[in-house]
């Protein structure tokens, strides 16, 4: 079915509409063989709170952006190659329901659908696209992924020293290796994580010690089900500002 749609006028028109919705700031999306599989609004768990984002699933990439005008305009375009994607289901808890993790070597995050059926459809389509891509390329699934950042609201004190309380002056920071919320003194070091940045990035002292001794797997937190312990955030409390986890801290 995908091959049949690849060169159809309807598919070309649909992709062109998506391009226009992102305006001049978005990257061109029309290339030979690319097919728009589906689209919809998902709630993305960002650093400070859950936020509504418009997602577009193609047969080779996943694209999302901030909603400026519903169904008409989006900004802050993000493009994720599906070959590098793995997904894991998240247990329901309170308002955070119908969710799964989207994990890649450069960035990982949680999203939530409006219903269980919608979640199942998204996950099935993503897995099918990834499987088809890997089958065609002969590559193996990615076994490396960036840590999912712990939301700010989950930590009132540093998750490493367990002492420093966060205030407007004592700011929260995130370790790029484990995703924990940590204080400044516990995350003064930098380490080169090539999959995430060409420059050394902020990591906590714990991860720095393990990385320095070559024990890289020990500091990668396993957070597939960690959001079952998240506070009962309101999924209706959304805004159209930038993704918080893209900030420098």
Distinctive features:
globular, single chain, protein transport, 249 residues, Herpes Virus-1, PH_domain, seven-stranded antiparallel β-sheet, 2 domains, metal-binding, endoplasmic reticulum, PH-domain like, 4 helices, disordered C terminus, two-stranded antiparallel sheet, alpha+beta
CATH class of the largest domain, anyone? Mainly Beta
Spatial separation of the terminal alpha carbons:
44 Å
Give the CA-based shape: globular
CATH superfamily of the largest domain: Pleckstrin-homology domain (PH domain)/Phosphotyrosine-binding domain (PTB)
- Count the domains: 2
Largest sheet: 7 strands, antiparallel
Give the spatial strand order of the biggest sheet.
Answer: 4-3-2-1-7-6-5
Alpha-beta classification = alpha+beta
Can you describe what's shown?
One of its GO terms (cellular component) is early endosome membrane. It is a peripheral membrane protein. This protein is an alpha+beta fold and about 250 residues long. The chain has helices at about 1-5, 10-20, 115-135, 205-210; strands spanning about 35-45, 50-60, 60-70, 75-80, 85-90, 100-105, 110, 175, 180, 190, 200. The strands form three sheets. A seven-stranded antiparallel β-sheet has the order 4-3-2-1-7-6-5. Strands 8-9 form a two-stranded antiparallel ribbon. The chain has a two-stranded antiparallel ribbon with strand order 10-11. β5 (about 85-90) and β6 (about 100-105) form a beta hairpin. The chain is globular.
